[in-house]
Hints:
Layout: H1 6-14, H2 29-39, E1 51-56, H3 59-66, H4 71-79, E2 82-89, H5 96-99, H6 113-137, E3 141-145, H7 150-157, E4 163-172, H8 188-191
Antiparallel strand pairs: 1-2, 2-4, 3-4
Helix pairs in contact: 1-6, 2-6
Amino acid sequence: MTALPNDLLAAVFTEAHTAHAFTADSVDDNTASRLYELIKFAPTSMNSQPLRILFVRSDVARQQLLTHMADGNKAKTASAPLTAVLAFDANFHEHMPTIFPHLPGAKDLFADESRRHDFARGQAWLQAGYFVLGARALGYVVGPMTGFNASTLDADLLANTSWKSICVVNVGSPGPDAFKPRLPRLAFEQAITIR
């Protein structure tokens, strides 16, 4: 493996900011597909891949979504050309024979619903991080949010599925005043212990 050049690291990490406003420039379906094809290779425990994504683009779907967003997140979501509802699939284990074939019976390890949901939620959050980094790597800005009513969103936009929402992410190009000043980060010494 070779380290990425500093300009690419900056674009994905150190110079990237959460976006709060977007231009009207579209994010097409090919880009959404490319994003998924990029992030699906990142690791998850037991290759479980529980993340599911609902891309919201149409005016009708966006209006539905806005009814579930916290007031402070409605305007930014309305301005984004593409919004992704990130969810975990409560029935991800049904795919284990295909995605983890070397362990027969892997599906049965997740028979307990509560354990399965906890596992899927944790792994989907891991994949949500990959989603943010993948979108940035493709040249977009993102605005991840947890300020929404998950139970009503799930009943409305994810009805008749086994998906449970965890995060909503706006994706696009930055509009005017898209970025707020960066908040402080903890220093290495505050966050890291080496033994």
